[in-house]
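Backbone-to-sequence.
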C-alpha cells in the first residue's frame, strides 16, 4: 500500500486530499479520510515580530533597560509591586491596573537604577512598510553622553560626508527582532512577575517569533478545478509557500553573500509575509489595486463570518426549519403548531425496542410521503447499509425490523423542539415546545408566549430545531421548557402572560352586568375545559325567575374548575380602573378592587394588573409562586381558549370610525376649550409685543413667551381629552381597551377625538427650520400656536373659526 510522502518541515502536502480513502497517515496511522491532520512548523532564518503582540512588546520594552534588561524601577518599588502581584486576592482587573501604573512609572525613569544607562522612549515607526521599533536613544538632555559617544565614533565618517552631522539630530537606535529577543531573554523571573508575565507559562521572548506554526491540510483545504485537473490553493497555503521561499532565499544570502543591505531587505520581506499570514489587513501595508487582502488567521477568527460568530456561536445546522408565524389560542402555551410539510422532512432517530416496534413498523409501511411515516432505516451492526424507504420494499423492510435498529421517523405530536426568534437578546428568546402537527404552512403558538420572543404576527419568521437524542430532549424540556420559564430571570416577574384581546375579554366577562344562562355557562366550560378535565357547575347567582350565572363565576371556574383541584388562591389588589379617591375597596364604583377567596373571584374586574405581564402582585405570580408552573400554565390554557371563543361566538369586538367620532355636544365643548386656550395664547403674544410679559427665571422675553405658550397649549390637549373620555359611553371599544390595559391610553383617544395637540421635541415647541419660520406657508416671525406645531384634527369649519 502506498504511503503518504513527507512534506518539507512537516507541511504543505496537499497532493492527497481528505477524499483519499486508500492511503494512511504516517503520523497517526489512520486513513486519510479519518485523519484530522497534524501541525508542522517552519524555522525562520531570522526572528520576526508577532503583529498581534506588538503593543505588548512595546510596553515591555518601555519598562526594561535597553542595556541590562532590568525593570526601570527602584529596588523598593519593584519589591512592593512584586508583593501586590503575588497576592492571591489580586484579581485580573487589579493586576491590569497595577501593570498600567508600572508602565507610567517606567516611562518617567530615564536612567536605569542598576546599570545607570540612559533610556529613551520606545515607539513603532508609523507609515513604515514593515514592522519597525525604534529607541530614541539620542533625544533629550539625559542622553547627552550617548550623543557625544556617537559623535566621537562617527568623526571619520563625518569628515568624508558632512551630511551625517545633520542626520545626527534625528538619530535613533533600531531595535531589531534579534536585539529585542536578546533583551527579553535577559529579563529575570522576578521582573517577569512585576511586568505581569508568567515566568513558567510564557516568557517574554515568546512574543518574538522564531518558528511559524503550520496548520494541517483540513484547515486550509485545496479546491479541485474541473478544467485542467489543477486546484485552487487556500490563502494560508499560498502565504506559507511565500514564507518558505523568502526564508530559503534569506538563508542562502546569509551563508553565501553576507551583505548587510541584502540581508535587511530580505528580512523586511520575511517580516511582512509573516505579518500578513497572521493578519491579512496589516496596517501600513501597501495594497495592490484590484487585489483583495488575503484571509489571514485573524480574519478567520473575527467578524460575522469568523469562527466564533459564524461557526461556533451560530452556525448552519441540519434538522432545523424556518417559516412565518401565526397565532393560535387553542394551542397550549407549551405547544407549537408545525406544518405537515415540515414534519415529513424533519426526522427523529428512534431506536427500535419491544415497546415501540409495532409503532415503528407502521411508520415504515407509511414511508416518506405519508405522515406519520419514516424516511430511513439504519440497521444495527457494523457492516450494515442505510435503507432509504423512498426506494426500498417497505413491507419487507417493516417485516425485517429488529430490536436495536434505528428508524428515522417523521416528527410527530409530542416531540420536543427548540423554538427561537432572532435577534436572540436574552435567555427566553429560545425555549422548548411540544409539537402539534397541523395543516397549512405556518408555525402557530399561543399568543401568551409572544412577550419572551418579542414576536408579532406582521410577517415575523421563527426557527425550529429538533433535538436528535433522548438526552437532548430531556435537557431541553427541563431547562428550556415554557412551563419552567414563565417568569423572566431578570427580576422574577411573569413574562408569559395574557395580552391585548385576552385582557379585553376578561375585562368584559367579569363586569357586574354580565349574566349567562345554563346553556351559555356550559358552553363556556366546554370551551376552556382541558381534554381530561371535569368542570363542576356552581350554584347560580340568580335562581328565580331564571337561573343565571355571573361572569365572575365563569372566571372562578377557570382558576378552579372542580373540587379535586387543590388550587386555593387568596389575594387582593387594585386594578387599573380602581377609584382611589373614594377608598371603598370591594364596593368601588368602578369595580376595580380584585379579591380572591379560596380561588373564588369575590369582586373586581380582571385586567392587565391581575393577569398581564410585569406584575408581582397578580394572579399569575400567585399561581406560579404558590402552586407551581403547571397550574399557572393550565390557567393560561383555559383562559386563552375561552377568550378567543367569547369574542368569536358570543360578543364581537371591533373598532371603527364611529367609535372615535365626536358628538355635536363634544364638538361644541371642544371648540369652547380650544377657543379659551387660543385667547390666553393671544394675550401672551400681545404682552410680548408690548414688552409687558412677565419674565420667567433664567429666560429672556422670547424664551419666557415660548415657555408660557408651551404650558397653555399643552394643557389644551389634556383638557379636551378628559372631556372626550367623559363623553364616551361605557361600551365604547377604544375606552374599554384603554381602561383594561389591552392597548392604547386616554391620550390616544383624545388625539383621535379632540385634537392632536402641541407637539414638542426635546421639551420645546418646534423651532424655526426655514428662515424665521417653521414651514414655508407661515408668515415670517409668526408667533401663532399653529406655527409651532399645535395640530388641530377636526372639521374644516372649526379650523376656519379658529383662524388656522
Amino acid at each position: 500500500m502506498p504511503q503518504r510522502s513527507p512534506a518539507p518541515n512537516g507541511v504543505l502536502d496537499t497532493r492527497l486530499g481528505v477524499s483519499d480513502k486508500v492511503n494512511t497517515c504516517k503520523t497517526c496511522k489512520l486513513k486519510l479520510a479519518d485523519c484530522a491532520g497534524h501541525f508542522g512548523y517552519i524555522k525562520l532564518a531570522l526572528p520576526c515580530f508577532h503583529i498581534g503582540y506588538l503593543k505588548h512588546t512595546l510596553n515591555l520594552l518601555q519598562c526594561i533597560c535597553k542595556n541590562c534588561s532590568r525593570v526601570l524601577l527602584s529596588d523598593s518599588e519593584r519589591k512592593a509591586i512584586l508583593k501586590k502581584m503575588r497576592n492571591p486576592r489580586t484579581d485580573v482587573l487589579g493586576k491590569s491596573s497595577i501593570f498600567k501604573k508600572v508602565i507610567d512609572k517606567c516611562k518617567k525613569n530615564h536612567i536605569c537604577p542598576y546599570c545607570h544607562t540612559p533610556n529613551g522612549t520606545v515607539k513603532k515607526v508609523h507609515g513604515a512598510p514593515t514592522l519597525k521599533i525604534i529607541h530614541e536613544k539620542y533625544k533629550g538632555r539625559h542622553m547627552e553622553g550617548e550623543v557625544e559617544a556617537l559623535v566621537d565614533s562617527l568623526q571619520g565618517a563625518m569628515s568624508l560626508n558632512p551630511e551625517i552631522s545633520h542626520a545626527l539630530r534625528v538619530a535613533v537606535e533600531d531595535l531589531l527582532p534579534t536585539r529585542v529577543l536578546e533583551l527579553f531573554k535577559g529579563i529575570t523571573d522576578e521582573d517577569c512577575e512585576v511586568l505581569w508575565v508568567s515566568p513558567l507559562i510564557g516568557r517574554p521572548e515568546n512574543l518574538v517569533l522564531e518558528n511559524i506554526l503550520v496548520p494541517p491540510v483540513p484547515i486550509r483545504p485545496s479546491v479541485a478545478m474541473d478544467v485542467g485537473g489543477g486546484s485552487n490553493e487556500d490563502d494560508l497555503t499560498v502565504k506559507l509557500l511565500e514564507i518558505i521561499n523568502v526564508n530559503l532565499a534569506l538563508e542562502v544570502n546569509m551563508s553565501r553573500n553576507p551583505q548587510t543591505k541584502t540581508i535587511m531587505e530580505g528580512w523586511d520581506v520575511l517580516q511582512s509575509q509573516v505579518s500578513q499570514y497572521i493578519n491579512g489587513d496589516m496596517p501600513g501595508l501597501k495594497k495592490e489595486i484590484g487585489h483583495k487582502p488575503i484571509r489571514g488567521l485573524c480574519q478567520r477568527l473575527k467578524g460575522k463570518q469568523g469562527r466564533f460568530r459564524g461557526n461556533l456561536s451560530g452556525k448552519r445546522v441540519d434538522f432545523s426549519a424556518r417559516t412565518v408565524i401565526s397565532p393560535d389560542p387553542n394551542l397550549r402555551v407549551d405547544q407549537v403548531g408545525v406544518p405537515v410539510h415540515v414534519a415529513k422532512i424533519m426526522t427523529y432517530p428512534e431506536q427500535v425496542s419491544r415497546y415501540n416496534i409495532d409503532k415503528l413498523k407502521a411508520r415504515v409501511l407509511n414511508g416518506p410521503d405519508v405522515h406519520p411515516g419514516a424516511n430511513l432505516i439504519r440497521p444495527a451492526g457494523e457492516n450494515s447499509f442505510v435503507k432509504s424507504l423512498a426506494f426500498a420494499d417497505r413491507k419487507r423492510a417493516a417485516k425485517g425490523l429488529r430490536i436495536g435498529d434505528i428508524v428515522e421517523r417523521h416528527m410527530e405530536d409530542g416531540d420536543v423542539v427548540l423554538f427561537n426568534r432572532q435577534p436572540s437578546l436574552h435567555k427566553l428568546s429560545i425555549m422548548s415546545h411540544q409539537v402539534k402537527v397541523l395543516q397549512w404552512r405556518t408555525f402557530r403558538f399561543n399568543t401568551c408566549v409572544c412577550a419572551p420572543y418579542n414576536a408579532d404576527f406582521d410577517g415575523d419568521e421563527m426557527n425550529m430545531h429538533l433535538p436528535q437524542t433522548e438526552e437532548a430532549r430531556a435537557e431541553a424540556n427541563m431547562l428550556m421548557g415554557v412551563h419552567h420559564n414563565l417568569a423572566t430571570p431578570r427580576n422574577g416577574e411573569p413574562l408569559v402572560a395574557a395580552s391585548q384581546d385576552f385582557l379585553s375579554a376578561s375585562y368584559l366577562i367579569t363586569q357586574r352586568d354580565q349574566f349567562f344562562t345554563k346553556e351559555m355557562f356550559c358552553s363556556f366550560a366546554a370551551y376552556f375545559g382541558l381534554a381530561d378535565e371535569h368542570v363542576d357547575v356552581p350554584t347560580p347567582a340568580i335562581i328565580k325567575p331564571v337561573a343565571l350565572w355571573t361572569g365572575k363565576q365563569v372566571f372562578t371556574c377557570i382558576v378552579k374548575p372542580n373540587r379535586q383541584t387543590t388550587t386555593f388562591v387568596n389575594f387582593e389588589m387594585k386594578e387599573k380602573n380602581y377609584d382611589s379617591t373614594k377608598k371603598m375597596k370591594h364596593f368601588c364604583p368602578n369595580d376595580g378592587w380584585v379579591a380572591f377567596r379560596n380561588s373564588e373571584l369575590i369582586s373586581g374586574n380582571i385586567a392587565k394588573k391581575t393577569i398581564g405581564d410585569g406584575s408581582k402582585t397578580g394572579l399569575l405570580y400567585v399561581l406560579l409562586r404558590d402552586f407551581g408552573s403547571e397550574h399557572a400554565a393550565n390557567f393560561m390554557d383555559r383562559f386563552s381558549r375561552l377568550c378567543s371563543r367569547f369574542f368569536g361566538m358570543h360578543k364581537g369586538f371591533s373598532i371603527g370610525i364611529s367609535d372615535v367620532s365626536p358628538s355635536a355636544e363634544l364638538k361644541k365643548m371642544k371648540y369652547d376649550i380650544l377657543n379659551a386656550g387660543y385667547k390666553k395664547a393671544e394675550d401672551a403674544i400681545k404682552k410680548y409685543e408690548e414688552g409687558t410679559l412677565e419674565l420667567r427665571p433664567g429666560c429672556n422675553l422670547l424664551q419666557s413667551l415660548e415657555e408660557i405658550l408651551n404650558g397653555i397649549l399643552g394643557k389644551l390637549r389634556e383638557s379636551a381629552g378628559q372631556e372626550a373620555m367623559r363623553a364616551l359611553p361605557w361600551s365604547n371599544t377604544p375606552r374599554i381597551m384603554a381602561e383594561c390595559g389591552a392597548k392604547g391610553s386616554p391620550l390616544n383617544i383624545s388625539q383621535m377625538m379632540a385634537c392632536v395637540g402641541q407637539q414638542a421635541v426635546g421639551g420645546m415647541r418646534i423651532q424655526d427650520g426655514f428662515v424665521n419660520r417653521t414651514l414655508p406657508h407661515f408668515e415670517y416671525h409668526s408667533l401663532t400656536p399653529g406655527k409651532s406645531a399645535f395640530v388641530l384634527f377636526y372639521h374644516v369649519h372649526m379650523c376656519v373659526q379658529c383662524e388656522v
